What we know:
Structural class: mainly alpha
Largest sheet: 2 strands, antiparallel
Radius of gyration: 28 Å
Helix content: 55-70%
Distance between the termini: 83 Å
Strand content: under 5%
Number of helices: 19
Shape: globular
Amino acid sequence: MREYLLVLFVTAAVTYLLTSPVRKFAILAGAMPPVRARDVHREPTPRLGGIAMFGGLCAGLLVAAQLTHLGRLFIQSEDTKALLSGAGIMWILGVLDDKWGVDALVKLGGQMIAAGVMVWQGITVISIPVPGVGPVAVTPTQGMIISVTLVVVMVNAVNFIDGLDGLAAGMVCIAAGAFFLYSYRLWYGYGINDAAPAVLFSAVLIGMCLGFLPHNLHPARIFMGDSGSMMLGLMLAVAAISITGRVDPDLVTDQTGSQTATVHALVPTYIPLLLPLTVIALPLADLLLAVVRRTWAGKSPFAADKQHLHHRLLEVGHSHSRAVLIMYFWAALIAFGTVAFSITNTGRTVVLALAGLCLVGLVVLLMPRFRPHAPRAVQAFVPPRYRKEPGAAEPVAGAVAAAAEEVAEPVGAGEGRPVAAELSAADQELLGRLGTGATAVGSHAERNG
């Protein structure tokens, strides 16, 4: 575990330190497209954040290659080399798209090429694990189709949710965290060495996201762009493929001594690729809804719009930060809930806990305008929008509104000032400090006359 944590921290540190220079480079290179109608941000923001992420990826793998135990993976498996090859192709494609723009079909072709290169180097689904039956082998062609499809789906799912500050990086970090716990348990708990590459890739992916998030949280100073989002989706897919089809349920049965316990422990891999799909359930749902919505409207599935899940949260009244946190909550609930169900022997407890958390999430989702106010003792440690006490500004706001109404409705044709006899002393004093603007209006009329 210590070596994985070291790789995670190195990846996060390098990504964090590289992001500021990359931001300056993106500004100088002109990778700051104008704000589009479907964008949520209001000012042009530099992209190319994927460059810093790719630097963190290389640094993390370089450190892992020098460690005692993780270094063996680079000798025993070709997965790391295949990952770098596919990530490099995807990263170059994303950089070109961030700077000059790439046609959707060309981008799709590049994604399939990157996936094909990794399949050619060995990252492919070899078999489908079926408890009680064992691994069911698939043909090379079937394995290639499954692997390429998974890569393309995950890449575009992550790319689709990259619409709010910090959303894509945070959700991928949550998904990678859940996948890290599951694959680490298979590797360390059951001694399945084929799960070790997935543990390493998940740790590196978590570090890339954690290092980039401080620069990408609202208001974002830099966007990851397609160079980052497509690479994150590819790495999540590689982690899934490297463990799916290589975990033999019979190996777990030897440890548990019970086929029933094995079935429960391998619930996420019961159906092929179930766990990888659950950890990106929200992005995948957004992707499917977008394809159906655009196709039904007679548009291209790649045509951009402003009807994604995060856009709908903003439309119902949630703030930018709250919409992101809601997406985080549901992603973590689905991903970690699936992992928890495979770990604990009390499935009923997990179901009840998930049901309670779902209820909490629905309440928050249906109360978009509710804004809690922190107690005075902790107001110094919370964002400013949570410090104001309810009703603190109501007297001032009421006085200003009353003054505005009096200014807008003079009582007599020959009078130039409003009547303030009905105002209280405090309101009259406030009105005197603010001024009604009548003097300025009169002087302006006299100068024009």
